[in-house]
Description:
It is built from 23 helices and seven strands. It is mainly alpha-helical and 581 residues long. The protein has two domains: 29-418, no CATH class; 427-438 and 449-580, Transcription Regulator spoIIAA (2-Layer Sandwich), CATH 3.30.750.24. β4 (463-469), α19 and β5 form a beta-alpha-beta unit. α4 (60-77) packs antiparallel against α12 (292-308), α11 (254-286) packs across α12 (292-308) and α16 (375-384) packs across α17. One of its GO terms (cellular component) is membrane.
Amino acid sequence: MTVRARQPGFVELFTPKLVTILRDRYGLADLRADALAGFTVAIVALPLSMAIAIASGVTPDRGLYTAIVGGFIVSALGGSRFQIGGPAGAFIVLVAATVARHGVDGLILATFLAGLMLVAIGFLRLGTFIKYIPYPVTVGFTSGIAVVIFASQLKELMGLTLAGPEPAAILPKLAALRLALPTLNGAAVAVALLSLAIIVAVRRFRPQWPAFIIAIAVASVLGALLALPVETIGTRFGGIPRSLPVPHLPDLSPDRIVALLPAALSFALLGSIESLLSAVVADSMTGRRHRSNAELVAQGFANVGSSLFGGICVTGTIARTATNVRAGARGPVAGMLHSLFLLLMMLVAAPLASFIPLAALAAVLAMVCWNMAEKHEFATLLRASRGDAVVLVATFLFVVFRDLTTGILVGFGLGALLFLHRMAQAVEVESGRPVVAADVADDGTSDGDRTRYDAALSADPSIMVCQISGAFFFGAAATVGAALDGVGGGQPRAYVVDFSDVPLLDSTAAATIAGLARKAGRQGATLYLTGTRPTIRRVLFAHGVRPPHARFKATIEAAVAAARRTMPGDVSSATAGRSAD
C-alpha cells in the first residue's frame, strides 16, 4: 500500500516563523540572545550595506534603507527563523546595469515590480521549483559574480581616475582601468591594503571580533588624522542622512513598467534563488526547515517596502545569515532587531560616515568576493565529471563575459540536457526466453532472474520476454525502441514487455510501445504488457495501446502462461506452461 504524505494547508505554508516561535513560549532569555545576535549582525551589515550600494551605482544611504526596511520585513514575515535580509553582492551587476540604463528611478520601479513578482511566485507555490537549479549552476554564477564584483572594485582599490564613465562589461572595463593606471593613488592603495590586512588578521587571531567594522574604523581615523588624499563618502556623496525618507510610490506609468519588466524579472529570479539558498544554508547549520513559499512572499513584500523608501533590491544574505546563526540567534526577532540597530546607528553616527574612505569599503567588498567565490566547490566540480564541469564553466564564463541572466539560463539549459542524457543512459532493456520447470537449478532452488527469463536457457522460442527498467521518457525512447525492434529474431508468436521497474512513462514512450503493438500485429503475434501502474496504463490507453492490440497481465509468469494457452498446435508448450505454473 502506498502511503502519501499529508499536504500542508495554506495557513501552514504561509505562517511566518515569527508567529511560530511566539507560540513556542518565547521568553526573556530568547530575547537577550536575539538582541546580542542582532547587534552582531548589524555591525557586520553596516559597512557592507554601504559598500554594496556604492558598488551598485547608488548612494550609500540607499543600502542602509534597504537593510533597515527590507531586512525588518524579511524577518517579520519570512519562512526562515534565521534569515537576514538586505542588499546583496550578487545583485551588484544587475543593479548597476539597471541604474546605467534607466537611472535610479528606474531601479526603484524595477525593485517594486520584482517585489510583486516574488509575492505572486510565493502564493502560486512555485518556490519549490527553485530546488531544480543544478548545483554546478549555482556555483558557477556565484563564482562569476565574485569575479565581476572584484573587477568593479579595482578602480576604488587603486584610486584611479577614469577619463569617462566606467564600462559595465568586464573586458572594456579592464581596458579602461589599464589606460588609467598613470592616475594610481598611492594613499588609496595603502588604505586598501591596510584594511585587507586588518580583516585577515582579525579573522585569524580574533574571529569573534567584527573584522569589517574594525578595518573601516581604523582606516577612517588614519585617513582623517593624516589628511590622506583619498576619496571618502563625504567627498563623493556629501555624507548620509540621519533619518529615513518619506515613503512614496515609484513612477507606475505603463511605458516605464514595460521598459523595466526585464530588469524586474531578473531581480525576481536572482532574488528567489539567493534567498532560498541562504535559507538552506541556515537549515543546514541549525537542523531547522524553512517554508520556501512563505520566504518568497516575505522577500516580495520586503522589496516593495524597500522601493517605497528609496532602497534597492532585497534578498536573503548568506554571510549575514550565517553570522546570525553563529551569534546564537533564537528566531526572527534577531533579524528585526538587526534592522532597528542599523536605524539607530544611522540616526546617531551618520556624520561619522563621511570620513569612511571608499578604498576601505572596496577592500571590504574584495574580501566578500574572496569568500563568495566558492573555490573549493569549483575545483571539486571540475574533477567530478565532464558534464558537470561543462555546466560549471559555461555558467561562469557567461556570467563574467556576458551577463548574469544569460549565464543562469545557459547553465540551467545545459544542466537539464545533462540530466536527460544521464536519465536516458540509465534505462535498460533486457530480453530473453521464458524459463520452464526443467530450467530450475539442480539443487531445487531458483534464481529470481532466471525463473523469469534467460536467453541462455531458451525453452520456448515462440515467446520473447523483455523487461524495461528506469524512467521511460522521450530521452530514452529511441534507445528502447531500437532494443525492442532488435528482439524476436525468430518471429515469436508472443511478446511480453514488463514495466515493473518503470516509474514513469511519457507520450513519446507510449508511442514507442504502440509501434511495437503494430509490429506484433503484422507478424500475427500477441503483445502482453505486465507490471503496469495505473498512471502508466492511462498514458498507454490514450495512445491506443489497449485490448485487443495489447493485453495486460499482472506478472511475466501470468503473461507467459496466457501466451502458451493461446498458441494452437503447440502441445509441448502448453504442457510446459502447465508444469511451470
